[in-house]
Amino acid sequence: MESKLQLLRKHVRTFPDFPKPGIQFRDICPILKSPPALTAAIDLFEEQVRTIHPQVDLIVGLDARGFLFGPLLAQRLGIGFVPVRKRGKLPGTTVTAAYDLEYGKAELEIQEDAVSPAQKIVLIDDLLATGGGHFCS
């Protein structure tokens, strides 16, 4: 596990003051360009989900980077993937949530029928612009 984490750390670049002063943006593009690093990322996500949430029904991925890791993880686990998108990007009836960012405001939507009340989900994103890891259920 530690060697996989080290590989990922080597493939994350930091851009200070992006998109505004005081933000330390963590760029994951090098992970996506490296098959071993991308495999390590999905391995680590899979290990966490199987250990902590063995009964998960769906992976829910946040727009847009959750779309990069979420479907790969869902396929590995043999379960479905549900996208949560920026407002106005999904067809049909949706549910909207507004939230504040350090550098603005945003709204996300999910299709109303995407997750049933009894289903257990894992919500996945990548790294936040502040550098904090984001992986929760």
Q: Flag low-confidence runs.
A: 128-137
Give, in order, the helices and strands: HEEHHEHEEEEE
The count of strands amounts to 8
Number of helices: 4
The largest β sheet comes out as: 6 strands, mixed
- Structural Rg: 16 Å
Summed over residues and divided by their number, the pLDDT gives a mean of 89
Helix content: 25-40%
Explain how this protein is built.
- With 137 residues, this protein is of the alpha/beta class.
- Helices cover 32% and strands 34% of the residues.
- The protein is built from four helices and eight strands, in the order αββααβαβββββ.
- The chain has helices spanning 2-10, 29-33, 35-52, 66-77, and strands at residues 13-16, 24-27, 58-62, 80-86, 94-101, 104-111, 121-127, 133-136.
- The strands form two sheets. A six-stranded mixed sheet has the order 5-6-4-3-7-8, covered by helices on one side.
- β7 and β8 form a beta hairpin.
- The longest helix is centred in the first third of the chain and has 18 residues, at 35-52.
- The chain starts with a helix and ends with a strand.
How would you describe this structure in keywords?
137 residues; alpha/beta; 34% strand
Quick structural summary:
This protein is an alpha/beta fold.
Please give the structural blueprint.
Layout: H1 2-10, E1 13-16, E2 24-27, H2 29-33, H3 35-52, E3 58-62, H4 66-77, E4 80-86, E5 94-101, E6 104-111, E7 121-127, E8 133-136
Parallel strand pairs: 3-4, 3-7
Antiparallel strand pairs: 1-2, 4-6, 5-6, 7-8
